[in-house]
Amino acid sequence: MTIVSENELGISNDDFWKELYKDVPIPLKPGEKTVPMMIDEIPDRSCEYQTMSNMVKKWVKEGKLVSVGMRISNGKLAQAYKVVV
Hints:
Arc Repressor Mutant, subunit A; alpha+beta
């Protein structure tokens, strides 16, 4: 582990922490969904995680969905997507 002093970074300790916290994922926003959420929305069909994940990749490639990054959903990290409008 390398220890870096404030002077070497050129920023204050508080600013350093603020920069680190920018990496912490945020909760899902309205209109964003994770793969498990999509699976839950089609109760009349049995769909495995891998199958839905492959569909989502296809939809992203087709420009129907866009990845919005990691989000917190039910206390867990998950990749989130939203519909392209």
